[in-house]
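>> received
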Amino acid sequence: MQYMRITKDNIGSEHICCALGAKQYESAVQDKKSWLCDRMDDGLTFFRLNERAKVFIEYLPADKAWVPVEASNYMYINCLWVSGRYKDSGHGKQLLGKCKEDAMALGMDGIVHIVGKKKMPYLSDKKYFEHQGFQIVDQASPYFELAVLQWNDQAVTPAFKSTAKAAAAVPGQGVHIYYTAQCPFAAGVLDDLRKIADDRGVAYQLHRLKTREEARQAPSVWTTFSLFYNGSFVTHEILSPAKFEKLLERLGNTP
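>> returned
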């Protein structure tokens, strides 16, 4: 299995797996590439399969991660994605192995990653990570869990920051979305969702988290995309326009 490391030197000419061939997301992909380049200065590593495929891992020291997680001297996995015909071919295990190798070489105590209590879109499969030796060490409302692979028994156990564990209410009525440039699918759909909200007379406010400090103070542990309605957390799922319309109808907003 041949994997390519994406660096500042080749990121301009190489794809980063997300939104392959989708013109709708071209601008968001460029934002993601810029975001990645900045994070590489913090130690971010990105490996992908050396093919035109959605098979990759993205990780960095947890102290530099854009999530409200306390995990000093651990590696944090932003994303591990193996899709389509490449599933069940050992790619996930191989990519996790690269992450573990790097973490151990840096003298770290383990690896952390956010999963869901059950299978959900845009969240890693909890059972897969448990099969790879990870253990669930903390939970955050309403369905997030912190999975840890720890090889130093004397190390401090990672945890979600208390400020985000309860998915606290946010000020303001209508739809409020907190997001980063880390996922092109999140940034790429926001204008379409705004049009739908405007058509229904629903207030719509975006909150782009532009620094690590802002992300670590976010009202939800899932900083890639978190949607709140009338102050309460609703979903982390990056919604298509059709799903967003159904959500607004369920919340009592008809055309």
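>> The mean pLDDT is 95.
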